[in-house]
């Protein structure tokens, strides 16, 4: 076994750096959320604030854990080889945050698809991964040596495996439902494609990170898995906030997309589709008329001597024709 500062605290320090970086992005997204969606329901706002509180506590505990052996006990190798209760809080906090986010997406799957089988499977996986995270924290308290973490592989496998299963189910359910409910209208289908891309990017990102963390933990006794484990909670919260804040780009209201059907069974279109019509233009055609004096018109009329005028009948009044400059009779 190599130096614990290199084997364990190297990946741990890099993972904490990514954790804090993602925490800053999370704070920015929360600020944007409260600026753009002031009309959201109160429970959703409280849910976002609770996730922000959990992320803050998780970051504070991680920094305190790094500070304790590297600063307060600098040069003490015995301290470097053991995890404290501050580090033990990371799995349960990650499991709690991931479970809340997954249950939120399970609620969204229920609203959109009404598929109770998928909802139950997602909810079961979310609860199972939280129990796995809680069990991992308890196991760390019982076996604090980093080199002996392989003794509780089973509980870690339950934690990370069910986390990846929940993320995969959420992504598959939402993508399948959206792809099968395209309307054929270019504007609506473009919005649906954007939602599909965002769902796949956020859902698969957390699933892949959990799988990589699990594979490295099972196959290696070093602390390399901590590089992916520490930022995992922030990936969940950022995926949720990214989904909430993207509604402004989709241009639908905060109540979401209506999934109801009318009495004829026709799927209702999203209420966010705004078809812009070009403004009506009014054209005014002005006709100009010119009044020409009789005397001036008579002067402009050419008279040919060889043409004979028809004789006037007795009693018939004499008539004269006035023409304008264009030749039209007035």
TL;DR?
The protein has 330 residues and is mainly alpha-helical.
Question: What is the strand and helix layout of this fold?
Answer:
Layout: H1 4-7, H2 9-36, H3 42-72, H4 77-80, H5 85-113, H6 116-142, H7 153-179, H8 186-219, H9 226-229, H10 232-245, H11 247-250, H12 294-300
Helix pairs in contact: 2-3, 2-10, 3-5, 3-10, 5-6, 5-7, 5-10, 6-7, 7-8, 8-10
Characterization of the model:
65% of the residues lie in helices and 0% in strands. The protein has twelve helices and no strands. Helix 3 runs antiparallel to helix 10, helix 5 (85-113) runs parallel beside helix 10 (232-245) and helix 6 runs antiparallel to helix 7. It is globular and about 65 Å long. Mean pLDDT is 78; it is low at 252-276, 282-292, 296-303 and 318-322.
Largest sheet geometry: none
What share of residues is helical? 55-70%
How large is the count of helical segments? Answer: 12
Overall body shape: globular
> From N to C, what is the helix and strand string?
HHHHHHHHHHHH
Structural class: mainly alpha
Q: What is the averaged pLDDT score?
A: 78
Say how many strands there are: 0
Termini distance?
Answer: 114 Å
Strand content: under 5%
Q: What radius of gyration results from the CA coordinates?
A: 38 Å
Question: Any low-confidence stretches, pLDDT <50, length ≥5?
Answer: 252-276, 282-292, 296-303, 318-322
């Amino acid at each position: 076994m190599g130096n614990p500062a290199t084997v364990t605290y190297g990946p741990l320090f890099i993972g904490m750096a990514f954790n804090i970086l993602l925490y800053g992005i999370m704070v920015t997204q929360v600020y944007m959320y409260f600026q753009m969606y002031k009309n959201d329901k109160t429970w959703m706002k409280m849910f976002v604030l609770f996730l922000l509180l959990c992320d803050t506590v998780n970051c504070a505990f991680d920094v305190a854990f790094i500070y304790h052996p590297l600063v307060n006990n600098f040069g003490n190798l015995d301290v470097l080889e053991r995890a404290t209760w501050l580090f033990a809080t990371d799995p349960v906090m990650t499991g709690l945050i991931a479970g809340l986010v997954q249950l939120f997406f399970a609620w969204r799957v229920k609203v959109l698809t009404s598929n109770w089988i998928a909802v139950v499977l997602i909810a079961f996986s979310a609860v199972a991964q939280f129990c796995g995270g809680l069990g991992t924290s308890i196991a760390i308290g019982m076996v604090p040596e980093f080199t002996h973490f392989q003794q509780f592989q089973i509980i870690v496998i339950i934690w990370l495996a069910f986390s990846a299963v929940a993320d995969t189910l959420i992504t598959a359910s939402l993508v399948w439902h959206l792809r099968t409910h395209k309307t054929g209208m270019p504007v609506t289908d473009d919005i649906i494609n954007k939602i599909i891309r965002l769902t796949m990017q956020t859902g698969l990102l957390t699933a892949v990170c959990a799988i990589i963390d699990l594979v490295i933990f099972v196959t290696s006794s070093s602390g390399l898995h901590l590089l992916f484990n520490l930022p995992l909670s922030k990936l969940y919260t950022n995926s949720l906030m990214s989904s909430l804040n993207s509604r402004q780009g989709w241009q639908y209201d905060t109540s979401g997309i209506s999934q109801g059907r009318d009495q004829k069974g026709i799927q209702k279109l999203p209420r966010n589709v705004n078809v812009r019509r070009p403004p009506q233009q009014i054209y005014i055609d002005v006709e100009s008329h010119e009044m020409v004096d009789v005397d001036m018109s008579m002067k402009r009329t050419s008279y040919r001597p060889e043409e004979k005028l028809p004789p006037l009948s007795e009693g018939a009044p004499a008539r004269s024709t006035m023409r304008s400059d264009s030749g039209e009779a007035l």
